[in-house]
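Lab meeting, action items carried over

1. Structure of the two-component assembly. Owner: GW. Status: complete.
Input record:
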Amino acid sequence: MSDLEHLKELIGERKEMAEFLDEALSAVEQSDSLESLERVRVEMLGKKGKVSAIFRGIPSLPPSERPVLGEIANTLRRVLSDEIARKKSVLLAEEEREKLSEAALDVTLPGRRKRLGHKHLLSSVIDEIISIFLTLGYRVEEGPEIELDYYNFEALNQPAYHPARSLQDSFYVKRRDPEKNYPDDVLLRTHTSPVQIRVMESDSPPLYVVSPGKAYRRDEVDATHSAVFHQVEGFAVDRDINMGHLKGTLEVFIKKLFGEKREARFRPHFFPFTEPSAEMDISCFACSGKGCALCKGSGWLEIMGCGMIDPNVFGYVSYDPERFSGFAFGMGVERIAQLKYGIDDMRVFFENDTRFLEQF
Amino acid sequence: MRVSLEWLRDYVDITPSPSKLADILSMSGTSVERIEELASGVSGVIVGEVKRVENHPSSDRLRIAVTWDGKEEKKIVCGAPNLEVGMKVALALPGATFPSIGKEKLEKRVIRGIESWGMLLSGAELGISDDQSGILELPHDAPPGEDLRNYLSLDDVVFELEITPNRPDCMSMLGVAREIAALTGKKLSAPRCEVAESSEPAERLAKVEVENLEGCDRYTAKVITGVRVGPSPAWMQRRLHAVGLRSVNNVVDVTNYVMMELGQPLHAFDLNKVARKTIIVRNARPGEQLMTLDGVERQLNEKFLVIADFDEPIALAGIMGGEGTQVTDATTDVLLEAAHFNSVDILTASKRLGMRTDASSRFERGTDPLGTVLAARRAAALIKEVAGGEVAHGEIDISTRPIFPVEIELRTETVGRLLGLDISGEEIQKLLEPIELKVRRNGNVLHVEIPTFRVDLEREVDLVEEIARIYGYGRIPSFIPGGGGAKSGLTKRQKLENKVTELLISEGLSGVVAYSFILSRDLDLLLIPPGDRLRDCVAILNPLAETGELMRTTMLPGLMRVSLANMRRGNDDLAIFEKGRVFFSRGEQEHPLEIPQVGILLHGRREPLSWLEQERKFDFYDLKGMVENLIEGIGTVPPSFDSFSLPYAIPGRSTGVFLEGKLAGYLCQLLPEVVSGFGLSGDFYACELLLEELLDAANEEAQFKPFSRYPSVKVDVAFVVDDDLQSARLEDEIRRSGGDILFRVELFDVYKGPQLPPGKKSLAYSLQFSSPERTLTDEEVNSQLDLIIENAGKALGATIRGREQPNGQQS
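Predicted assembly:
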């Protein structure tokens, strides 16, 4: 039983007392400032206050009334001082809030920001490609950017008279002996495919490998060409790898990279290092296959070259093509980034304008 | 290559629509790049016959052609010089449309007082050739009144094809028709290559010698005498125009026509201009020259294979003929050449000369060694048809060896293994025979005979591709292989490398990708002295002027150029990093070295401009803090820093970064003259770190280090030391003397000024102590601090400026 309930029970039918209690409680409740509350306190509980007056009146009461009245007065004093303390803490909190609200902030002012760093879009796209292949059980290998002709061309079944080996298309390393300059044995790799050979040379199947990196071609720089560009090469060599595995893997890849709705198709093509070879197209983003300017009306966008690793390539690394088979694929990172993010000029990637860098 | 659908229909019945056909071709490896509808702009043009030619009363140049349109005679004013009575012409009637007038309609007009009821058109006006020298002459049997669109099959569709280098057999109408026939289940009908010949043997009219049998293993010549050179018939002009070839004259056009038809390049010589009527296939002699048909004087040497007459070269073998022996209007006797050249020789020569022609592009990929005779006969027959003359009997045919089709053994098991298909020998046979591969089955082994025009089919696996191609890649079922198991995923080092990138980005740096090239001038701008390691560059033999001739040995030029590009565009603040490689030459014998690096460049404001803060520019310690965070973030041992002299850095504002005593990079402020050399101004802070050193020093397997659970005691103490003392030395001393109970040392103030003696500075540290076993007493902390102060005084001459009493402040 709370003090207040106890008090009301004690007061019982004493009408004057009951009225006083109501009056006192409402005076406390209605105080709207610490000052007015203090006035109420003095009026009620001060030396000359009303509760003191009750105490003072007790001796003049009949003896039978005195103990009851004494208990009433004591309880009353306790109840009122509790109420006043409670009210005081409410008023104090209000006052505090009022003071604080005077220092209100303009919440629309900009916050204190640190400079935010950004990953280059090409790095993000490479990371995304790699992460998909990691889930498919691949590992990542890198190779040198300055390559030997052997790895860049010869071991990839590109005979000496292949057009890609001409001076026009590749950057060759200058040698002191000018007789060695051309046809030369050191050049900037024209694709990431040499990594295939290097990994196969140093390891044995099963191999599931992706290899991102820079490649170089002697193209004048414009909206669609860059002398430096990025590729991701991938290959799998295992027992009983067949063309269905190539298709399944790349179909999963493009759906993960470009979304569930993208369809893939494979067209026969020619690459010296694969047989059969294929070009993979994906259904156009812009028109979903109906035909538009982006896909030049075909409904399909060329996305990468791929195929079953040519037995001649296995010959260079002494793998038995009767025991092992494999597939390989290679994609241009810039092209994928351009398609995925709607970038029509390749130069954007290499200019590194902060307004480009900060977008992604 | 362009192919005409109308032309293809000579050899195969085409039922699918053009777009469907394009799809079928593309999906079988003959990619259709573009579909072009031809001459859709011609209407109201009919075959006319010129009945009479009258003079124009008021013009010498103009005449009046009275032309029969099948029903009546029409008077047409015409200025063409080749107008003749009896000629069959292209008659445009009023209301007609054709390409040269665009969307307009032809109207009846009065020309110099004479009403003209239409117009006689040239090949150029019709859009079927480039010829605008006169009106188009139609064959004599052309029926007057017939719509020219039907008569000349003007409503043609042309496919632009991408022929892959392995398929020279598809560089002809017949080759493409063969594909279409196989893919659509139709029969292929090859052109007839028979010709009525005179009794005069060809050998008596000309002589052929092949000196270089390696370069030319077959040379077939046919002789036609008494030809009348003139324009080709309209149908031939139209077809050549459709596939992108210019009409020259009837004889030359036939050689081009047959090349397009069969894929065998041909050349026609004016036999009377060939010295002693002798053809010699040989290598050029040093100093010999040849004026080729494109009007360029070519300097030859012994590396070039030429066709010569008795005296001198008259053609570049397989590439282009010479001007001196070309067929002209005056030519009467023709020697037709159909040869088989070594593909590598042709490719090499065409590259050396920078000349790629329709002929060379076929020879360099490989032509059918058995195709020369048929092509020569076909061309002779056509020349006789369109230019008259007599075809001499037989052909002069020189060949080194008999050529037989090869046979390849194909196991059905291989097909299944490589394609993931369960396919029978019988099914395989059905796929291969339509492309003219003869199959003999012997259980699960198929013996496949390869026609000589398929130079690309040499191995079993080549046949597997043919099967997949004809079967359809799309029908091969998809699977996902198992993956590399334990060998899959990123290595710890690769994960750590990714973390480096993340940490740099969390420092507010943005990644850039620069070219790997620099200019040697860049090294001069960086004041790199001669002989410095940074000058051991890998040089490019054939650089592009715009990108630079050296492989970079430092990332600075690239980062500076990124800055310049941004500054010029008003992007004034820059905080960038690049992760990439630098390259060092190791002399002639060793392969160049590639070193992965991280480069950082800071310039301008540290934070975006803000109302809250005073603008603050990047400084040396911003860069240093980033490097310290990076190194701590990947968990290496604490780095040490020491002054480090760099040619491009402000003296006293550069430091080496050392990990476990090994140099792992530097950071510095660039000299103003270096900055201005790159066209920039202001303060630039740069850093290059060796990624391998960072990763080597990183603790890949970090273990938990227990720490005290008892309250710690914090004490501030300020030392006065000589101004030139490196703070790191004092800090090292504090840590050493602090013993096991000192766990945190933070420098919170550096002061130099009037309150200190000259040449002195004050370094104020907040030190924190705790014990793993119990709560430390003030006495214990005080005595440890006394020891620190005593040792710092002894070792470094440090004195105490202020010392706080331990306050037992709890952390």
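2. GW to write a short summary for the group page. Key points so far: Chain A touches chain B through 90 residues (CB under 8 Å). Chain A has 13 helices and nine strands.
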